[in-house]
């Protein structure tokens, strides 16, 4: 029996990501959005669809097919936990303890390297082989039109822990410190060698292990602007791809439609959240009467709850955006969560009010920025 072990070149990306052109300055959908930012990203399903090096042919020293297992190490790491090569058609995740860092700032932190394993029967000249494909568990794809930086939560003050991904490029994501939280933060910075000046502060925590799509707010640097970002986390067999794009006002994931006759304030409810990375300052937004505002989350991994405060009221009303339905507001007004095409929208109406036309407010404006 032959077993083909295939590690995609230097633990890189099993596929390709089309590179979009950089936009010139602030475009209609955001800062420096690439012209092809919404184009499809194509990832290969198997190494056998890719041209490249041949796999490493591996054989056991004995013929005990039920008890034999394999393992691997890399970059001076410890050996990974042994795994069986007999589980055809399955995928799994394997963590490899890395060597302790020699950088003084990291104080001997041990990285945690995570990989996806896929087991399949070979085809063609490998039709009699069992193939184990090893890929990085997380691959980040930057389609923002700006340089993206990522860091593990809790290590934001350490430049040695920051990973930078230029516009249109991809990079693997591993954990710098195995003892720290397994979530990351992101921000955009001016790319080296360009005339770009736009930058943001670190975002809230992101968990790449939770598949799905969400929007997140990249807070502004001093005197700068907010950047609304859409994150798509999708699984492709043993690999997980984390794609960053600028949120589109035309097809946003969330929005607030204020069809009432008064202004309202809205913010993500953070004080009651108990999950890791919770709390923090709440960013409040004003939505004027007859206005539509694209909504983004400060901490998307915590909850999808919006606190709504109607002008003239003392206490806010909490609306759960992950549940369709209607909530009563003061003075007979209502707040309804409904599907507006591809957008999950929160509609606020006066008592007995009917559908009203609204104008777009574009990017969300925080009350702090107005002050």
Mean pLDDT: 80
Question: Taking strands numbered 1, 2, ... along the chain, how are they ordered across the largest sheet?
Answer: 22-23-24-16-19-25
Shape: elongated
Major sheet description: 6 strands, mixed
Order of helices and strands: EEEEEEEEEEEEEEEEEEEEEEEEEH
Q: Give me the count of strands.
A: 25
Distance between the termini: 71 Å
Number of helices: 1
Approximate strand percentage: 35-45%
Q: Into which percent range does the helicity of residues fall?
A: under 10%
Structure classification? mainly beta
Poorly predicted parts: 6-35, 273-279
Radius of gyration: 24 Å
Detailed description of the structure:
It is built from one helix and 25 strands. The protein has a six-stranded mixed sheet with strand order 22-23-24-16-19-25, with no helix packed on it. A five-stranded mixed sheet has the order 4-1-7-6-5, with no helix packed on it. Strands 11-8-15-14-13 form a five-stranded mixed sheet, with no helix packed on it. The protein has 371 residues and is mainly β. Residues 6-35 and 273-279 have low confidence and may be disordered. It is elongated and about 80 Å long.
Notable features of this structure?
371 residues; mainly beta; 6-stranded mixed beta sheet; 5-stranded mixed beta sheet; 1 helix; 25 strands; 36% strand
Short description:
This protein has one helix and 25 strands.
Secondary structure elements and pairings:
Blueprint: E1 2-7, E2 26-27, E3 30-31, E4 56-58, E5 91-97, E6 112-121, E7 129-136, E8 138-143, E9 147-152, E10 163-165, E11 170-172, E12 184-189, E13 212-218, E14 227-236, E15 239-246, E16 254-258, E17 264-268, E18 285-287, E19 291-294, E20 305-310, E21 317-320, E22 325-328, E23 334-340, E24 343-349, E25 359-360, H1 367-370
Parallel strand pairs: 1-7, 8-15, 16-24, 19-25
Antiparallel strand pairs: 1-4, 2-3, 5-6, 6-7, 8-11, 9-10, 9-12, 13-14, 14-15, 16-19, 17-18, 17-20, 20-21, 22-23, 23-24
